[in-house]
Design goal:
Elements: H1 2-26, H2 58-93, H3 96-111, H4 114-125, H5 129-156, H6 159-166, H7 171-207, H8 219-226, H9 235-266
Length: 267
């Protein structure tokens, strides 16, 4: 029941944010660049959450920030998953010295925090949403690759792989029929966890001015802009902070629920 509770709560939190983002593509209270609401207007009336220091509607900014957060999570997981899976499979099937060399390279990359690697990449290429997604995905790829490498080694050591090779089954077919299905559950759990980390990384980059550039809203930049007026307009800081916490906790609980399910299935 505990694992189901984690999974259900996590999915509900993620779906709440995802639902709000989907609604934002059909309806927004105001245009993103509309500054007619007046500076730091309190919540109420046409502006349910009030306005920011430029007079923009906070609810509109919050919804657009949700698009950025979910888009970054999906994009970074796709980049990191594809690159990490490919590199991990190659390392898992490599000869011993190539495998050892790949392990050393992956350990070096993982030694650097994901945010630091992303900051270095973004600083060198320029701030944009695409660059942030690519940078976070590349940093994530090393973590995924090391996990896939270990999982592939475990699968290749099992008796049914030896039997398949004796029967003349090709390596590509073994990968598709045996390796990928066996590593998929653990890999899915890891990618779900990485999605939450990607959301935090994008918010951190935007807070530092290295994420999505204006006029696009980002929860991280909303927090940065709100810190100067937090005493006079606390909602401007509380709203994006609460949205960020809700999404990240939801993704982490979902990953934890999936992990417990995989652990029970292996017993």
């Amino acid at each position: 029941m505990s694992k189901r509770l984690h999974l259900y709560i996590g999915l509900v939190l993620v779906l709440i944010v995802a639902g709000a983002v989907l609604v934002s593509y059909l309806w927004l209270p105001f245009a993103p660049d509309d500054t007619s609401g007046g500076r730091l207007a309190p919540p109420g009336g046409d502006h349910l959450l009030g306005t920011d220091k430029l007079g923009r509607d906070l609810l509109t900014q919050l919804l657009i920030g949700g698009r950025i957060a979910l888009g970054t999570a999906l994009g970074a997981v796709a980049v990191g998953g594809v690159l990490g899976l490919g590199a991990g499979l190659l390392a898992g099937f490599a000869t011993r010295w190539l495998d050892d060399a790949a392990a050393v390279v992956l350990d070096i990359l993982i030694a650097f925090p994901t945010l630091l690697l992303a900051m270095l990449i973004v600083a060198g290429t320029g701030a944009s949403l695409g660059t942030a997604i690519l940078a976070i995905g590349l940093a994530m790829a090393a973590i995924v690759a090391r996990l896939v490498r270990v999982l592939v080694k475990q699968v290749l050591g099992r008796d049914y792989i030896t039997a398949a090779r004796v029967a003349g089954v090709s390596w590509p077919r073994i990968v598709l029929s045996h390796v990928l299905p066996n590593i998929a559950p653990v890999l899915l759990v890891n990618l779900a966890l990485q999605a939450g980390l990607a959301v935090l990384a994008e918010a951190s980059l935007s807070y530092l001015g290295l994420g999505t550039p204006p006029p696009n809203a980002s929860w991280g930049r909303m927090l940065f802009e709100a810190q100067a007026t937090v005493l006079t307009s606390p909602v401007a800081a509380i709203a994006p902070g609460l949205a960020l916490v809700t999404l990240v906790i939801g993704m982490n609980l979902t990953a934890d629920g999936l992990r417990l399910g995989v652990s029970d299935a292996d017993r």
